[in-house]
Predict the 3D structure of the following.
Amino acid sequence: MIVEPVVSSRVEPPPLASVNLGLPMPFGRCPADLYDGWVLHEAALRNGLNTLLFPGQALMAFPGEDPTGGVAFAHGVANSTWISAATMVQDKRIRRDVLDAAGIPQPRGRAFSLQRGRTYAKEFAETIGYPVVVKPMVGDSTVEVMPRLRNADDLDQAIDYLWKVPPSRANFTQASYAFTQILSPKTSSSTRTRGTYRYLVEEHVAGQYLRLLLADGRLLSAVHAPGGPWNLGEGVRDVTGEIHADIEAFAQGAAEATPGMPVLTVDIVVNDFTGPTAHENRPVLVEHSERPWMYLQHVADERRISELGHELLQSSARHAGLTLPGSGMGTQERVTFRWEGLSQVAEDIQAAEAAAGQMQLDLRFTSTDPVAGVVCGEVSGPPAVIALLSEFVIDGHVLTAPAMAVETRPA
Amino acid sequence: MRLSIPLGTAPKRVTIRSAEAVTFRVPMDLKAEDSQRTIAPFNYLVHLTAATAGGKEVSGLGEAQSRPHQTGDSHEHSWPFLDEALARLVGEELDLRDPLSDIRSRIRALETKAGESESLPVFPFRATIMGIETALLDLAAAALGMTVADLLGRRRVMPTPIPPVLRHRDAEAIDRFFSGVSPRQRRPLRLLGTGDVEADLEHLRHVATSRSRLHRSSAAQPLWMNFRGRLDVEQAHHVVRTAVQWSAEGQLPKTVILQNPLPSEAHEETMELQRLADELASGYTTSPDVRLLARNAGPDVTADLVKSGAAGGGLRMINLRPAQIGGVLRTLELAEEIRAHSPQAQVLLTHFPGASRITTMLHRDMAKAVPNVEYLSTTADVEKRFRVSGRRSRWRRTPLLRLGLGLQPYYEDLVTQARARVLHPTPPQPAVGNKRPNTYGDVDYISPIGAYAVHGHIVEREALAHGLNSWRFNKSSIVVSDTAGTQLPFRTTRWPLSGVVAASVARHKEATRILLKRAGVPVPEGRTFHEGDHGLAVQYAQRIGFPVVLKPAEGSMGVGVTANIRSESELDTALEMFSKTAHGNNEFIVEKHINGGDYRIMVIGDHVAAAVERIPANVVGDGVQTVGQLIMEKNVARRANPHLGPLKIRWDAAAEYQLHKVGYGFDSVLPVGERVYLLSTNNLTQGGESIEILDDLHPSIQEACVKAVQAVPGMGYCGVDFLLEDHTKPLEEQDAAICELNAMAALPVAEYPVYGTPRRLSEQFVFECADAFGLQAQAQRAENLNLRLTIRGGIKGVGYGRWFARRAARSGLVGWVKSTGEREAEARIYGPTAAAAAMVTVAILGPPKAAPESVKAIHVQDDLDTVEFVLLNEAADEGNGTGIEPGPGGAAEDFEEASNLESEGGSVSDDLNESEVAEEQLDAEAIEDKLEETPDDR
């Protein structure tokens, strides 16, 4: 048997922060990767739509009986997003080529493989100069990015980190629709990533880090995050009203270069976001994502979230030719629910009742079928919390095992 | 001298009953730093069977190491030559009273038939002919109850293998090495030169000193340095002088072998160096023995060397490679001649790298019979990866009892390794039960792309065929655009007409089932249970009705699955069994059992575009061949399918189990027309077969498929997995259910079915998109494409241009390719659509060491002013000299350097293992495509 060296690394990517919801623990924080789906779920409830939620945050929100007669999202990403476009931008080497051809400035960068790339990666880093940024070549934007690597030693450590097999990395996450990568080690006894796994080494760009959220080419929000999206300390704020029109135009240019993404997030670095983008102030695109990643907007200004959720829902409704029933719900509402695919109904009922209590929801079960694994009931409370309960029921936070489908209808 | 113990009476003759040949690619790490190939060469296995007058059966095996530049065997000519030669052998009688004369005359006849040509002054197909010769010698020896060594005339008992190579150059590492060698071990050692003369000489001296100090028992053994042809004449003179002097002074051992000091063509100069060494040596009383060894060479040069040595002296050592100089008996004759004229000359007997055990066994036996053989190469590279032959007999292993080479074909591995195969006499085709599979004209263009990347190719092909431009980033990702600049991305079947939710939902079987059930589509009812919830599971089964299937919630390959459970008591037993399996502590699923065939029905938009029935891997008996031979025949025939060619029937425990169940084994000869299944599952990836049946698919089934797909929002394309009892009957008249939706189902399944009507889904893909997004695609499919390619990425210094030009020329394209920068090349290609489009896809692969990152293909109108394919500014393509096929005497073709490392603990073979069948020798991307395509391991 080959004994592999234990993979350890001093450099680790900063995690995407979870969002404080003001609820008692363990439901007090929403992980960043669930956040967008939850926001859209809440928006659907507020608009009086029926919802059907499946694993992978696949949400259908619809009036009437037909789940396909409405709008749909996966992790809050609109279903009108072409699967091939989402796949393409998740491959950052391809995304770089496509944006480059459209004349969008990006940091200098190149992809290397774990197996053979270390020496070349270091040579390349020397050429472009430290600090550099390392990110997995394929994967969700901003996830597992290791920014500001100061020297070859840091770079070595970052590569060592990537040698740890992805599912065992603390900060690894990927969208449920993502391209099926081989993320398992080559043998069951191994803990190392396969050698063919690739990563990107990019120039670190200094300046103001700005996140821009667009829907159908229109800027919905701009957030200034001085420490990047991984560092949510002081200074993260909404600057939608402050950015120069050139910045908005820049983001629109990036959106046009990658068709098939009605909603997208563009992260840029610029010297001064309030000024025109003349050569001294040329923005550089550092991330480009089909996922809204609105946890950052939450940190910047929590009050805008409902509005953003509604805007994104509206955008999808327009694409689907659907007129939204309007804000049917107030701050307190009541819905009926049906949970399917439960494996231990009795234990799950107990767990759900306890969770609802902590979340200050009024929940009762109206029918249970332990043989089929189906329960029905009613729940009332704020739409946001009802949506959260549904998301957690599917995600495995509440029940003994994740449910396979959660349906809600306004009572 | 003879060692074989004669048992019984020797037969006087044998009649050849059958002749079989199998081609396989030599396993090689083409990405290795010192690899100079872009494609692995072929070896041929030759297998003859014969019978004596008394009906006793014997067989003979031979291997041909066909190497175009060295042996005159180019596959497209040498394989038909072999086929014909073997056909003629069947029915022939081999005279065993003087077998060598009989075989010699047969070989002479083959040589004459092979003929001579202007480009090859000596007869071509030398390796192929030697393969036949070897099989005949083996057959004769086996029939006579002796080894090949004894048949050839044994002169010695044990030959010496070529000494191992010491790669360390660091003083401490060298000391460590010698300290670690057992004092009882006495053997010469080889070193590698670098071309830096002084450093190399110093290294030689250092190794000698270190060895005298730390490993005294070997101190007097020869030291050997391979200069790899890197010296000029002046430097070589200096090396010879110094070596003689140091040897005389005791700083080097008495015998020093200087191998390949000069470039490959400088054989005569090497002889002169030997004369110089001999002259210098004569001036010392200690008589130092410095030997010059020139590279192995073809028959002409070798004959010249022998003549020159005979005339002027200077032949002290010579490398004879039988496959290169014309076979076993010719080598024997040549060595006799050398002994007659230069009795002191030592012979090295070598084979090409990439030999199987058949060749090494033959060389071992030859080395016992050929005069003056001092060393021989013994490494069977092929067997590091798979077996070509196995022992005929466990107990007849010693030279006293071994029959011939003692080997027989190892079909268990050959079934998947065979690239081509002939068998004479040709077995009759059974009249029933064996439909001829479809063949496809584009297979030669597509096969380099690899099975799983085909579906990344065919959409691009159709886009190009309909006037759209393409931009490719890897095997599966392309962006298609029209002249107006509208861009559409594709990653295989991830396309603009499917949304993210469709991909997300289809990934979860359970979610799919719930959604489809709500939509009123027939699904097998089922649910997941927590470990140990047996009582609940039984209640559930009663509710949905028997029969049911029990399976683990996670897992594949059928482990822990019990199907067709018909009663409560059967379910109890199955649950009890399940709890004892490796999955026993996990969740499990109870599901309605549907007793139907397995169908993949392709839905594009709102219509069914193709339907394929999948059946398990199987063979049909012909009354002549064994199951093993039938599997090989089927796998070879499958190579005419661009998609399924590499996805072969494997011989493994599962196949053995299935075969055993019906009372057969691997070596059983199946009765004519009998079909046996080799797997219980229908996986096309494991040799299963596809039959396209859309024309017969009942409309009610088609409606159900469309309804299922429309139940998932934004699912623009889907492969619906349907279990059906009879696809021609209405749904309500049969037991049927949809068990899975595949958002990424592979298009080639229907585009390249084994049987039935091929459906060009990829073209429909392009038209659907053109309609939906207003792309300006031409309605008419172009017959020829005229394209400009821009290739970017790591393509410098890896022989990309030469590789491209050769591939394009072989595909019948005209045009040119040229390097246009450090990381960029440009090409113009013109030719038939299938060939040109495949070239665009293959361009993203490049030769083994290339790493292209994008290929842009744009339609152009202007005509090319060439009628062939040319590499422009060749100098800019120069790299490390990587070629398709090393030239005569290429450094990488030298013996054993790549496989016999003393100091590095077999690191090369580890490297080989590293790339070994890395999931059936696919790269990561191909495996990913496979995963997308086969979420449930289908």
